[in-house]
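Archive transcription. Copying these from loose printouts into the bound notebook so they stop getting lost. Printout 1 of 2:
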Amino acid sequence: MNYTLQEIADKIGASVHGDGNCQITSLATLADANIGNIAFLSNSKYKSQLTNTKASAVIVNEECLADCPSNALVMKNPYIGYAIVAQLLDTTPKPASNLHQSAVIDESATLGSNVTIGANSVIESGVTLGNNVSIGAGCFIGKNAVIGENTSLWANVTVYHQVEIGNNCLVQSNTVIGSDGFGYANDKGRWVKIPQLGTVIIGNNVEIGASTTIDRGALGNTVINDGVILDNQIQIAHNVEIGSGTAMAACSVIAGSTKIGENCTIAGLVGINGHIDITDNCMFTGMTMVTKSIKEPGVYSSGMPCAPNKEWNKSNARIRKLDTVNVKIKALEQALNELKAQMQN
């Protein structure tokens, strides 16, 4: 795929400085770029690489233009420009290219136009696949599931019965959508399973990483709203709702019946308790433990950064003595108050 620099500028909303007819064939980093490559600078950490880059063009902001030795595309946010150019030059194949002869497709399933299904996939009864849906090899789509137009599932994705996935979604390999939530009642030490009778409803333009699990609702539904992006190896429990535009990084977990607001950012290894509400526009830094509802937008943290082992051991030893220190401080405060009272008398 070849684009002229001017064609790319028109698509990303940038202005051309230099030769608009320069041919671009691929993306590269500033350090690795050669003729035909376009690079970008969005992090000042890499500004030193700009003056020596061999890229045919670089996406930069106005402040860095003077230091750019090559053709340039100038825009306010070069990282957004990079994202759009990456889409233009993307060479990722579709998960499947045809209806493979080894795929098992129930005769009652409804397939839209231009649907592709990979080898050894199973499409059960009552399934509806919209136009341009692509199902990778080894996938399982359960009874009465619905998958919207232009949605792609990579290899070995499992979609349980009655799950609904919207349009323009992307699901990476080994993800499971609609598995049973962790619902049990305890009868004097014996766990009694509670069938999970709800399902999972996923909106439009949602992307889900590899090996992520989204449990179906116990009675109501688990809901992932439009524009949500989920990283790899995330656990979302039954009856969770995630608001539109929220992003969640790898290995984070949300317990059951919690509602996450819109446009939240959840970093890696965050744990969110069940039966709580998180308002819109919250950010949780890595390893934060959220134990109660959050009603005010803002940035929240609780994870403890690493430290040299000796320093950590000393700090840990002090933390273990906090109760004793607290008792002593209260005793000293009481003695001080008694001394002040005596002096006043």
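Printout 2 of 2:
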Amino acid sequence: MYNLIKPLFFKYDPEVIHHKVFNWIKNVQAIPGAKQMIKATYCLEDNRLAREVFGIKFKNPVGLAAGFDKDAKLFDELGNLGFGFIEVGTITPVGQPGNDKPRMFRLVDDEALINRMGFNNEGVDEMVKRLKNRKDHSLIIGGNIGKNKVTPNDVADEDFVICFEKLFDVVDYFVVNVSSPNTPGLRDLQDKEPLKKLLFRLQTLNETKPKSKPILLKIAPDLTNEQLDDIIEIVLETKIAGVIATNTTISREGLKSNPDLVNQMGGLSGKPVKDRSTEVIRYLSQKSNKAFPIIGVGGIHSGDDAIEKLNAGASLVQIYTGFIYKGPGLVKEINKKILEKGL
């Protein structure tokens, strides 16, 4: 079905069609009986898919990565497509428009996207209002938090703390995003000392709560092995729950698409980042002796791609670009493959 309508979708600007499809998913599921039919088509219910990771029970290990539902407007409807968890955001304390358009580019020959969205969102208060109306609490929601573009790095901690405090009662876990290439200077916060300072502050705050919530760190695929060693040290020292590997890459190695597209500024996602993402997962898992959970994301376009991430050391996986290229059937395909492999 999706392969029949995808050529029509791909005639539109990627950001324009994102909003059209977004609204279509919401409107279709408002039709009486449609939600049940969609769940019957795309959901795979099987107790063998359940996972408990960093103290949270997931009904299946396939999640939607941050960036698709930036403002938590569609999480219930997306859950009906078979996802075990949805990550909303990246959210910032104050709403911001993001970078100038066009800011998303489709590299069809590479099954990839380049984006330079720049954390466009409506602000954390609007997100909180929507998440308070959650219908399905069996669907795990993660809150991906960042800093506003105008916030200097030396006080960036404050932005993360604001988002953490406001979202604490309405999400199940947190993701600290210091790895997007589209906010100037943000990746500097991945350096050892500022990152340690930020995570210690959030974890100290977390421990003051009646019941703490998992905090994960999302990292770039462009880190060197030495930097990954630092990440392992920081995760163990700050006692955060785990790592999401990986975000988009600034590399353009081996791309086949039109140079006008390839040379666009921004983060590259999709198939070209698959191997590097898996390498990072394997390195972190082996070097840390599996000391913390890893959520694997990057270039998952098939069930076999997801199995590769799980075999490399991931406990859960997330999709985004593969969801756009392969459609919602990808979630069920991955879950079927996991059952088939007995993972």
